[in-house]
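Long-time lurker, finally posting.

We've been working with Free methionine-R-sulfoxide reductase YebR (Colwellia marinimaniae) and I want a structural starting point before designing mutants. I don't trust myself to interpret raw outputs, so I'm hoping someone here can both generate the structure tokens and explain anything notable. Sequence follows.
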Amino acid sequence: MSNQAEFYQELLGQTKALISNESDIIANMANVSALLFERLAEVNWVGFYRLVGDELVLGPFQGKVACLRIPLGQGVCGTCALTGEVQRIADVHQFDGHIACDASSNAELVVPVKVAGKVVAILDIDSTALARFDQQDEQGIMSIVKIFEQNITAQNDTKR
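Top reply, 14 upvotes:
Generated this for you. Predicted structure of Free methionine-R-sulfoxide reductase YebR:
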């Protein structure tokens, strides 16, 4: 699809449909990572890391075998989790402290998943293409993560 905005609107609708009636966060992580892996061009890994204590622990993903645990502040994912800020890296090999789980990955987009303002997980998307992700990709993935965060918050509210 040539129009990125339309593409991400469609992807957002598909995400809502996938997770709106499911309360299990792991099941939703699995389906969201599968959807993004299937629909995004030039990606070789899509998945979640959950924040457990002071490290990220591998969650549901699509792609090659991945690093199991990443300390806070280390690599692109650990930096995202520590700062709570999106990391859009054109060339991961130029990122100080990059952790190469898959040496064929060249670009990365990592978005924090927050509940009540605190990072609970990150969504990590890798590509073999340098500079694969642009501002529209970042905005599109952030909107998908927002829907995911709203789903988690709604589930937490119903458990109280």
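Before you design anything, note these points.
The mean pLDDT is 93.
Residues 75 and 96 are 8 Å apart (CA to CA).
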